[in-house]
Amino acid sequence: MSRTGRAVLDPATGRLLARLKDTDQSGVDDAVARADTALRGEWADTSPSRRGDLLRNLGDLLRAEREVFAELERSNAGKPTARALGEVDFAARVLDWFAAAARHPVGETHPSGPGMRAYTDRVPVGVVAAVAPNNYPLLLAVWKIAAALAYGNTVVVKPAPETPLSLRRLVDRAGELLPEGVLTGVYGGAGTGRLLCGHPAVGMVSFTGSTAAGRDVARRCADGLKPVSLELGGKSPVVVFRDADLDAAARAVVTGFTGNTGQMCVAASRLVVDRAVHGEFVDRVAKLAAGLRVGRPADPATDLGPLISRAAADRAAEVVEEAAAKGARVVLPPDATGVRHDLDGGFHVHPVILDEAPSDSRAWREEIFGPVLSVAAFDTDAEALALAHDTAYGLSASVWTSDADRAEHFGRNLRAGMVWVNTWGDTEETVSVSGMGQSGYGRELGLHAVEGYTRPRAVWVAHRPGR
């Protein structure tokens, strides 16, 4: 193991896994140059069907090395084994989907007079800088890589500095399957990302991460009029009415705020519940959440692994303590001092429920990226909608009711890029997703991903009629 470079840790123990040097300017230049050369050379001459074959080969690679990639996600991102395996499987399905999408028809032929043919098509944006987050290191990077390659781009991927190991292996293994330079990797923190944003040969930046970092990406890319896709933070509400299936809703809320230990941009971190069932429903949620096991990721009985870093665990505890000081009732754990979970020197926390969280508290307003649920009660439909919208974010929202009219009303009026009615969290590779407001813009997955990774072009062809 190298003795220099950025420390890469196991968040379950704090143990050093590796050291990896940040890619400097010359390294970024080299990676982008290789991607640009491939873009203008062999990859430009690769047919859509052949690109599809290569993407399927990448999917087969993930399936063949499923346990290897899952182990890297477990050790480097603290994911319980079953969750890590499921994410590798999802990534393989995404590659399969975009392998087929590479051959989907695009463009239109327009009516024109004699001697002229007019049509539109789509062309690659060029070298795509794919900047991935630390909560789903492999999966969300593959969302970007698969779409970009399917539509004829080349990719320079930068994993989060905390979680580079699975992406480093993917890049290394893909080098044996793809033409030289089609998929390259760079490593490091914000500094490396800024080098990508400013590089003149990068045609687009696809970024997933915090809203603050996304603003910085957008500003830096604006100087070069460089398109960006931003999948950013969230503070998503779950609205539960008295006529809902309360058992199903309670299970969804617990999954929504504790899944991946709360490290999800779509995390259901705000519960907006009908006052008529407020106390009963919060008790149901608390009972279910209390039964979850915080433990070692390798243990099959573990439900919640660690947060990604000590700083993340510290911040979660601080937010809970601040909300309690402002008057929130800490339902779970019994007292605010019990947020941290001492296990193996790792960065573990307990699930937390903050009832009547003050609207000016960070717990209600900010994305925490930890298993913390803030609760508010409502009396009317209008108040429920206002509480759901009491955020600058707009990534996802969920509503639970047996009233068909109310379901349609909230389904139409909830201001979020993903809306779930009597369900939560459904995501498929065939369905395009994005956010609103401070949650960003741009489409991932599905048919609409083509809009971000290509640019429309209008073509007129003059010819001599009658020959």
UniProtKB/TrEMBL annotation:
Oxidoreductase found in the keyword field: yes
PROSITE patterns noted in UniProt: ALDEHYDE_DEHYDR_GLU
Active site, per annotation: 231
Claim: Signal is one of the keywords in the record: no
Family note: Belongs to the aldehyde dehydrogenase family.
PANTHER family: ALDEHYDE DEHYDROGENASE-RELATED
Name listed for the protein in its UniProt record: Aldehyde dehydrogenase family protein
Source organism of the structure: Streptomyces wedmorensis
